[in-house]
Every structure is written in structure tokens, then in C-alpha cells.
Specification:
This protein is of the alpha+beta class and 691 residues long. The protein is built from 18 helices and 19 strands. The protein has helices spanning 8-16, 18-83, 86-94, 98-108, 139-147, 160-166, 168-174, 225-235, 277-285, 326-376, 392-484, 492-516, 530-540, 542-548, 566-582, 619-622, 641-651, 681-688, and strands at residues 112-116, 122-125, 152-158, 176-177, 191-192, 195-205, 211-220, 247-253, 256-260, 290-296, 299-309, 315-324, 526-528, 550-556, 562-564, 588-599, 602-611, 655-660, 666-673. The chain has a five-stranded antiparallel β-sheet, sandwiched between helices. Strands 9-8-12-11-10 form a five-stranded antiparallel β-sheet. The chain has a five-stranded mixed β-sheet with strand order 14-16-17-19-18. Helix 6 runs antiparallel to helix 7 (168-174) and helix 11 (392-484) packs antiparallel against helix 12 (492-516). The relative contact order is 0.06. InterPro entries: HAMP_dom, HATPase_C_sf, HATPase_dom, His_kinase_dom, HisK_dim/P_dom, HisK_dim/P_sf, sCache_3, Sensor-like_sf.
Length: 691
């Protein structure tokens, strides 16, 4: 990176001056440490400040939620107590329960009480519900009738009509004008007419223990300031919030405040204002508690919101507690400013003191630096000279001069030796490179010659030894067919297969020649059904399979055809099947499977897998099993079977892979392309070597 021109003089001075570097080393801890420490202090204070505030509001929300749960449970307990009272049982028996219900409503702090029969219809009501009105559709009532055990209470949302049916007064108490609130989600409504009710029901039993009816009661939370004021008094007791902050508590129906001690201007409660859209989505839509700062009506509060659910598990509202953030933020800012000023003063004092003590170090170092620069310009006689310092720097200067004298003496000797050594190394390097090049060329030529000679000798021997017996077998087979005539019909299929295998033997001889000189041969390609070839191979190897007691399992999962030479594919499969049978001398399971071969959602061909339950292949041998002449059968085989098979499949653009765990069997997979992609690497190697 190129240094800007206006920075070059200061940078050059710094790079060329020991004094500047030493000053930097002295002052760097102070100058760099100050902003780093202040940055870390700000980060830690900001992080832990937020964590502490979130922890505080989280614990406040837990306390508020526990109290609200007790309020909900308390309504159920009071209704349950009324249901089990003797006065109620006596009044119901005498048919004069209206007076008792009115008195109980005031004593228990309920907004309505209904006496229902065992079918959930109204018998008596403190409100305006007529006798026979259906109440069984409410979940809490239905549960009391169905289960008939204990009191239950839940939070439910009543529509304006449901409230008016109980009492017009309840509908009027629930009605609330919605106030346009900053950051709230858009809402076309201007009023909230629904009511959030703590709804409770308890079964009533007669003297025989039979269900005689149900007591239903409830408390309207809309405008119920006593609950939120009590929550606020419990959570935020006097002096529990320092620094002038103040706590608040709120009950929401949806995102609208129906009971709150959050204040608007002139001390008016913020009833009808709405929560911010971000909070509403997080709590009501996503169902997650909110524990962080949030915009509440007209200021920022450290806030905790938790969803309120009804009897169906639907999120119908929120419980909120929080306190003003501004006093805490101001206190944090003041504390950081005090720390900043304190660290700044300490850094300035430390820098002045460090510079005073650094002066005694500058002068000897500058003289040594000057001597080094003079020597660098070619003045080998330059020395530091006498110095007044008697400390380590003075000793260093004297030793430096002595070292320069020794170096001057040795320099001339080294220059002469270096020149002579360079000439010798250059000559030896040229000789070594020439010898290495000739050696590598000779090794490659020797290896290629040995392989070609071995393959050629083996091929000639095999062709000579197999061709004559094959001709005899073919002649006797023709004679057998002529002599038997029509009587050969029952075994005609076997005769045909023998005829094909004799022909296959001739082809194998040809393939051996092809392995040695692949460029002189080309296979006849046809469209082949792998399933048919597998079936033929099983017939041809049936004797091997039955003699070893091998069980054959087939999983043919594709009808896709491939283009390949049939005899070559048959040769490869028979070779793999015979190898698998030989790997299971005491019997086992031979599995033949075929599956489609697709890559990048495009059909490529077919995969044929031959797997056995034999001893498997050692890990050290896996990398060599396709090498020519490599075999683990010390008393039989030439080690060409797998090598030839691999060459045959590879010529059409396919490959053979093997998976094996020693002691648990092996699986060979043929990857055969539907349309061949011809390869002839052996022929190319022969041409490159002059073969």
C-alpha cells in the first residue's frame, strides 16, 4: 500500500529514529491503553447495565404474574366457596336464592353470579340473564358440568353483546375509547367494546353427592384499577427504584390498555392507549415474553410483557410491568464521565513521568544508531566511541565497538570464501540436475518396458493355451447337436448357453489381447437390459452357487437400459459373482441389485451392485485390487480379472467402486452410463510410448 505524501516525512522520521521508536514504546501503553480501557469500560457498563435492568424487570414480571395468577385463582376459590356453602344449598332448596346471591356478590367482590342447572341453563342471576338462558357454551361452565370436581377460573374475552346480556352496566364499564398512540400498529377501530373477564365456575352437589347445578361468576378487568395498583405496590415498593425512576403496571386486552397506572399528561391514566407494534407482534403474535426497553405511550421504559391466554390457549392480552429508563441512563452517563476524567488525569501524569526517565536512554542509543548508519553508507571505520553511561547501555556501546572490529577482520575472509564456494555450488548443482533428469527418464522407460513385456508374454500364452481347447469344445458341441437332432430339444437352452460361453471364451482371449493393445480393438455396443444380463449370469454361475450353498437375493429397482457390449458386461458380472462365491467357502448370501444412476437431477445410467457376506477385503489391499497381476489368492488366479473388468467398464465412461469392512463382506458397484463416453487411456499410453 502506498503511503500518502503528507504522511511520508513523519513516517520516515519514525522508521529512521531510535528516539521516536523509544518514545512510542514509552507512551504507547498510556496513549493506546486509555482509549482501549475506556472502550472496554463503556462496553462492559453498557452490556451489564442492560443485563441488570433486564434481570430486574424479569423478576418484576415474575412477581406480577404470580400475583395475577393468584387473583385469577382467588375468583375461582371464592366461587367454589359459595358453591359449597350451606346457605346456598338451603336457599336453592327453598327456592329463594336471589337475596343470597346479591349479598354474596358484594362480599366476594364479583361483578356477576349465575346459578345454573346441570345442563348449563340459568336458574337465578344477579344480572339480567333470563331463566333458561344457555351458558353451557362457555368452556369453564362445560368443564364444571362434565368433570363435576372443584372450582375452576380462567381469563375469557366477552363480546359487548355477551356483557350486555349479563348486565348493561358491565357493557358500559368495558367500553373504552382507543387513543391514537405513537409506534402502535394501525387500527381502524375507535373503541374497544369487548371485556376481559376472570371467569369462574364450580359444581354444586346435593345432600346425596349428586350434581345439582353450577355456580358461575366473574370479575370484569376493564377499568379495574385496583388490580394494577396492587401489582404496582407489590412489585415497586417505596424506594425500590432509585434515581427518581417510577414503576408501572398494565393489563392489556389485545394491544389496548384496559387497566393501567401509566400516566398521560396532567396525571391522567393512559387507558385506551395501545402497545407498540413491535411489542404486539413479539408477544401476541409470536407468543414470546418481552424483556427489554420499549416505548410506552410517550417515553422509554425498561419493560416486561407476558401474554395472557384464555381457556382455548389463545393469546388475548398482555400483563405488563416496567419502569422509566431515563434516570438510569443519566446515572450511567455521569459515572462514565467521572471514570473518563480520572483515567485521563492518570494518563497525563504517567506520560510526563515516563518522558523524564526516558531521556537517559535516548543519547547512547542515538550514538549507536549514528554509527550503524555510517557503516551502512560504507564507512567501516565508524565507531560509537566513549559514552558516559555506566549502565547496560554503556556496556552495550563498548561491546558494539569491539564487535565491529572483529567483524571488519572477518568480513574480508568471508568474502573470499563465499566467492569460491559460490562457484563450486553452481557447478555441482548443474551436474546434479542433469543426473536426476536422466535417472527419472530411465526409471519411467524401464517400468513401462517391464509392464508391456509381462502383459505381452501373458497374453500370447493365454491365447495359445485357450484357443485349441476352445476349438475342440466347439467342434464336439456341433457334433452333439447334429447327432442328437430333435432329441436335443429338452436341453437346447443349455446347449445354447454352452455355445455362447464358448464364444465368450474366444472373446475373453480377445479381451486379454485388448488389455495389452487396447487401441487395436473396439467393442460392439448395443442397448442392454441389465436385468436380463443378471439373469443370464445367474444361470451360468448356478453350479458355483449351489455347490457352495450360496443364497441369492435380487433387488432390481430400475428398468433403465444402457448401451454397452453384452458379452463384456456379462464377463464383468460373472467375474464379480465368481469372486464373491469364492469369498464365501462356507456359504452365505449373494445380493444383486440395480438402481438408477442420477447426477444433478439428470439421468446418467445404472448402478449394479454385487455384494457378499464373506471375509471382505483388507484395508491395505483396497487401493490395489484393480492393479494388474495383484491377487490375494496365492494358489490360483492371475490377478487380471478385476483389472480387465475395470478397463472394460471404464472404456465406456463408467467406473467400478468397492466398499468393504474386513470380516463383514464386500460390495462392488458398476457405474454404467446409458450413453457411453468412450475412454481409451491404455491405447493413448501405448501411442505415447511408441507401442
Amino acid at each position: 500500500m502506498q503511503v500518502p505524501r503528507f504522511l511520508r516525512p513523519p513516517l520516515a522520521y519514525f522508521l529512521g529514529s531510535v528516539r521516536a521508536k523509544l518514545l512510542f514504546l514509552v507512551l504507547a501503553p498510556l496513549m493506546l491503553g486509555f482509549p482501549i480501557i475506556m472502550g472496554l469500560t463503556w462496553y462492559w457498563s453498557h452490556t451489564y447495565y442492560n443485563k441488570l435492568l433486564v434481570f430486574k424487570v424479569g423478576s418484576d414480571l415474575v412477581t406480577a404474574n404470580e400475583y395475577f395468577d393468584r387473583v385469577v385463582e382467588g375468583v375461582g376459590i371464592r366461587v367454589g366457596g359459595l358453591a359449597t356453602s350451606r346457605q346456598l344449598a338451603q336457599a336453592l332448596a327453598e327456592g329463594g336464592s336471589e337475596g343470597l346471591l346479591k349479598a354474596a356478590q358484594g362480599e366476594l367482590g364479583l361483578d356477576f353470579i349465575n346459578v345454573l342447572d346441570v345442563n348449563g341453563r340459568v336458574l337465578h342471576s344477579t344480572g339480567h340473564l333470563p331463566a333458561g338462558a344457555e351458558r353451557g357454551e362457555w368452556a369453564i361452565v362445560s368443564r364444571a358440568i362434565r368433570e363435576g370436581a372443584g372450582e375452576r377460573s380462567v381469563v375469557e374475552v366477552f363480546s359487548a353483546d355477551a356483557l350486555a346480556a349479563i348486565s348493561p352496566e358491565l357493557r358500559d364499564r368495558a367500553r373504552l375509547a382507543l387513543v391514537d398512540t405513537p409506534r402502535a400498529a394501525p387500527d381502524s377501530r375507535t373503541r374497544e367494546e369487548r371485556g376481559m373477564v376472570i371467569h369462574a365456575a364450580a359444581p354444586v352437589f346435593d345432600a346425596r353427592g349428586n350434581l345439582a347445578g353450577v355456580i358461575e361468576g366473574g370479575v370484569l378487568l376493564n377499568g379495574n384499577l385496583g388490580i394494577v395498583d396492587t401489582i404496582n405496590a407489590i412489585v415497586y415498593r417505596e424506594d425500590s427504584l432509585p434515581l427518581g425512576s417510577k414503576g408501572t403496571a398494565t393489563l392489556f386486552l389485545g394491544d389496548a390498555r384496559i387497566a393501567t397506572n401509566v400516566r398521560l399528561f396532567e396525571g391522567e391514566r393512559a387507558l385506551g392507549t395501545r402497545a407498540s407494534a413491535e411489542v404486539s407482534k413479539h408477544v401476541l403474535t409470536d407468543g414470546k415474553p418481552w424483556l427489554e426497553r420499549a416505548f410506552v405511550v410517550n417515553d422509554w421504559y425498561v419493560s416486561g410483557y407476558e401474554p395472557i391466554v384464555d381457556s382455548q390457549g389463545t393469546r388475548v392480552g398482555m400483563l405488563y410491568v416496567g419502569f422509566l429508563e431515563a434516570p438510569f441512563s443519566a446515572a450511567k452517563t455521569v459515572a462514565l464521565l467521572v471514570i473518563f476524567c480520572l483515567f485521563l488525569a492518570i494518563s497525563i501524569i504517567g506520560a510526563v513521568w515516563s518522558l523524564h526517565w526516558a531521556r537517559s536512554i535516548f543519547r547512547p542509543i542515538e550514538r549507536m544508531h549514528g554509527a550503524i548508519r555510517s557503516i551502512g553508507r560504507g564507512d567501516n571505520s565508524a565507531r560509537v566511541g566513549p559514552v558516559d553511561s555506566r549502565d547496560e547501555l554503556g556496556l552495550l556501546a563498548r561491546e558494539f565497538d569491539r564487535l565491529l572490529d572483529v567483524l571488519a577482520l572477518k568480513r574480508d575472509q568471508l568474502e573470499q570464501l563465499a566467492a569460491s564456494l559460490d562457484r563450486k555450488v553452481e557447478a555441482r548443482t548443474r551436474d546434479l540436475e542433469t543426473a536426476n533428469t536422466e535417472l527419472r527418464a530411465a526409471q519411467r522407460q524401464l517400468l513401462m518396458s517391464e509392464k508391456l513385456a509381462a502383459i505381452g508374454e501373458l497374453t500370447a500364452g493365454v491365447a495359445h493355451e485357450i484357443s485349441n481347447p476352445t476349438a475342440v469344445i466347439q467342434g464336439n458341441l456341433d457334433l452333439l447337436r447334429e447327432e442328437l437332432g430333435p432329441q436335443a430339444a429338452p436341453v437346447m437352452s443349455e446347449i445354447r448357453l454352452i455355445d455362447e460361453q464358448v464364444n465368450r471364451i474366444r472373446l475373453i482371449v480377445t479381451k486379454l489381447l485388448q488389455f495389452a493393445r487396447p487401441g487395436e480393438f473396439a467393442g460392439y455396443v448395443e442397448t442392454v437390459d441389465p436385468a436380463t444380463v443378471i439373469a443370464d449370469c445367474l444361470v451360468l454361475t448356478r453350479q458355483h452357487l449351489t455347490s457352495r450353498g450360496v443364497k441369492v437375493v435380487q433387488h432390481l429397482q430400475t428398468t433403465r437400459r444402457v448401451e454397452i457390449n453384452t458379452q463384456e458386461l456379462q464377463q464383468v458380472l460373472i467375474n464379480l459373482i465368481v469372486n464373491a462365491v469364492q469369498a464365501m467357502p462356507d456359504g452365505g448370501t449373494l445380493t444383486l441389485s440395480s438402481t438408477p444412476w442420477d447426477e444433478h437431477d439428470m439421468p446418467c445410467g445404472v448402478c449394479i451392485t454385487v455384494s457378499d457376506t464373506g471375509q471382505g477385503i483388507r484395508e491395505d489391499d483396497l487401493a490395489r485390487i484393480f492393479d494388474p497381476f495383484f491377487t490375494t489368492k496365492k494358489t490360483q488366479g492371475t490377478g487380471l480379472g478385476l483389472s480387465i473388468s475395470y478397463s472394460l467398464i471404464e472404456r465406456y465412461g463408467g467406473r467400478i467402486t468397492v466398499d468393504s469392512i474386513y470380516g463383514k463382506g464386500a460390495a462392488f458397484t458398476l457405474w454404467i452410463r446409458a450413453e457411453p463416453m468412450y475412454r481409451n487411456e491404455h491405447a493413448e499410453a501405448a501411442r505415447n510410448s511408441g507401442g
